[in-house]
Design brief:
This protein has 89 residues and is of the alpha/beta class. The chain is 31% helix and 38% strand. Strands 1-2-3-4 form a four-stranded mixed sheet, covered by helices on one side.
């Protein structure tokens, strides 16, 4: 999985591409932790438009991001999600 971070004002976007599964947990956590630790950020969007596969461990990673962000008074949103059966196998 590839992760790109873009910061615009007080919002950070984590753009993911490839397979978002357990093998990506270290990379995702590194980017997510650095983003949440940025005191100038009030909101984090996770852009899923480039994700071709997502499993249950990815959902767990997103929940951990949400919990960490809430502790820092930040919001988390998911962007470019696709309907079930049309995006992820």
């Amino acid at each position: 999985m590839d992760v790109k971070v873009q910061v615009s004002g007080e919002k950070a976007t984590l753009s993911l591409s490839g397979r978002f599964d357990f093998t990506a947990h270290k990379e995702f956590r590194q980017y997510a932790d650095r983003t949440v630790q940025n005191n100038g950020i009030t909101g984090v969007e996770v852009d899923l438009s480039g994700v071709e596969y997502l499993d249950s461990s990815a959902l767990g990673m997103l929940l951990l991001l949400k919990e960490k962000a809430e502790k820092s008074q930040q919001s988390v949103s998911l962007g470019n999600c696709r309907r079930s059966g049309t995006a992820y196998s």
